[in-house]
Amino acid sequence: MSLLSIALDPRGVCFDTALRSREAVIELLSVMAERCYDVDANRVQADLLAREALGSTAFGGGTAIPHARVADLKKTVLLLARLSQPIDFDAHDGRGVDLVFCLLSPQGDGKTHLTSLAEVSRLMRNGDVMEKLRGANSADALYALLKRGNDRIAA
């Protein structure tokens, strides 16, 4: 079983949200993290913004992986926001981002954090999975596709 399979909560998937900035997406993901994983949204937001200040976490191909290590988080977790319209995330390919995978790890667990980042990036390179995520018609469908896509990669 992979880390992503363990770390994804169905309530941590947001469907066709209309946001206009990277900061608004990070705020939404922070609130979702608080709701799903009982961490302080303000702390998560500050940690994610601090990481973004080091350089964009846009992956290219319309995707981004904002990530941070967060105090008081008990396990590595994943959140997903599919945006209704792509937004500027300062991607190296110049493409707007419409799929945002947010990875949060416990503050002292750097190894798991790096391993999880590699798993998310591997998932994001799977064109079939990305196409299906973009074509999903609900948050539940996004969740099921993400779990299925990750399980296929982990196998």
Could you characterize the architecture of this molecule?
The protein is globular. Strands 1, 2, 3, 4, 5 and 6 form a 6-stranded mixed β-sheet that branches. The protein has helices at about 5, 20-35, 40-55, 110-125, 125-135, 140-155, and strands spanning about 10-15, 60, 65, 65-70, 75-85, 95-105. Helix 2 crosses helix 3 and helix 5 (about 125-135) runs antiparallel to helix 6 (about 140-155). Strand 2 (about 60) and strand 3 (about 65) form a beta hairpin. It starts with a helix and ends with a helix. The chain contains 6 helices and 6 strands, in the order αβααβββββααα. The mean pLDDT is about 90. It is of the alpha/beta class and about 160 residues long.
Short description:
This protein has helices spanning 3-7, 22-37, 41-54, 110-124, 127-135, 139-154, and strands spanning 8-17, 58-60, 63-64, 67-70, 77-87, 97-106. The chain has 155 residues and is of the alpha/beta class.
Helix tally? Answer: 6
Outline the low-pLDDT stretches: none
- Series of secondary-structure elements, N-terminal to C-terminal: HEHHEEEEEHHH
Rg, rounded, reads: 14 Å
Would you report the number of β strands?
6
Instruction: Determine the structural class based on helices, strands and strand pairing.
Output: alpha/beta
Termini separation: 8 Å
Largest sheet, in brief, is: 6 strands, mixed
C-alpha geometry: globular
Q: What proportion strand?
A: 25-35%
Average pLDDT taken over every residue: 88
